[in-house]
What we know:
It is built from eleven helices and ten strands. The chain is an alpha/beta fold. A seven-stranded mixed beta sheet has the order 2-8-7-1-6-4-5, sandwiched between helices. Helix 7 (164-176) packs antiparallel against helix 8 (185-199), helix 8 (185-199) runs parallel beside helix 10 and helix 9 runs antiparallel to helix 10 (220-243). The longest helix is centred in the C-terminal third of the chain and has 24 residues, at 220-243. This is Type I phosphodiesterase/nucleotide pyrophosphatase. InterPro entries: Alkaline_phosphatase_core_sf, Phosphodiest/P_Trfase. Keywords: Signal.
Amino acid sequence: MLRSVSCFLLAALLPVAHAATESSQPEPIKRVIYVTLDGVRWQDVFIDRVYFSKLWKRADKGKFYGAPDSHSTMEVASIPISLPSYQSQMAGAVQPCDGNGCGRIQVETLGENILHKLALSKKDVAVFSSWSQVYLSFEHIAGATYTNSGNVPVLDPETQKSDNVMADLNEKQKSDHPAGADRFDKYTFAQSLHYLEKFQPRFMWISLGDADTQAHHNNLAGYHTALMAYDDYLDTLFTTLARLHIDKETLVILTTDHGRGNGIDWTSHGPSYPESKQTWGFAMNGELKPVAQDGDFARYSTLSIRPTIEAALGV
């Protein structure tokens, strides 16, 4: 009798155990949010964690790359200048671009490949950038994707008009910064968050740039203010994904385009400052693909981005 009861209980519990095993499996990735924080130093991420305290509270849910004394490095594959770096990220290979004046990328990009392989509409592949030149790395054929870079109005891709939220943010940016070519990050992020909630694109790149601007102006306080704002933006992004119930099916990747010089050279980057090639990364709901592996030591770079995202989306 006892044996029969035990067998009955075991049989009753088996489906529950099986269901628990299935629910613990990661959900398939349906979209990717890619965030670049222009010119943010690895030192400000890994050494002085006060500027990304909210992100570090999520560290156990994701993975950092390029931390000192870890089993990985991360760096810029191209020269450590913004447009060459962004073009290498979107191409998956170093491009013949040697400065911010090199013009439009000449090969099919990550966003274009996602759009074509998954047969998506234009609104499903988007970039929002504070820096006005990022579009030159996102498309090799203008108009293929939804591209909004710099101090220009945001329009709904379906109506070609600004909805109420877009129009309000457009007007605030215009009043706040009427003459600049670049847009303030707070408006870039707000527009991208609204777009995410409205369209839930399959791939969206959010490119923020206030930190690099403040660093070039040798404004350390302004640079630190930008870092703390980024921490708030990222926390809002993760909270929004959870509220929309798409957090577990969304791969989020954070990184930068380049590092900065050491010491008094912190305001600069480029070929004359080889230390500015060292960068960092963070991924949630996935792992970056290394560009080289030596035992348990992995090397990551800007060339890790495209293959990671393409593999996650199955393209």
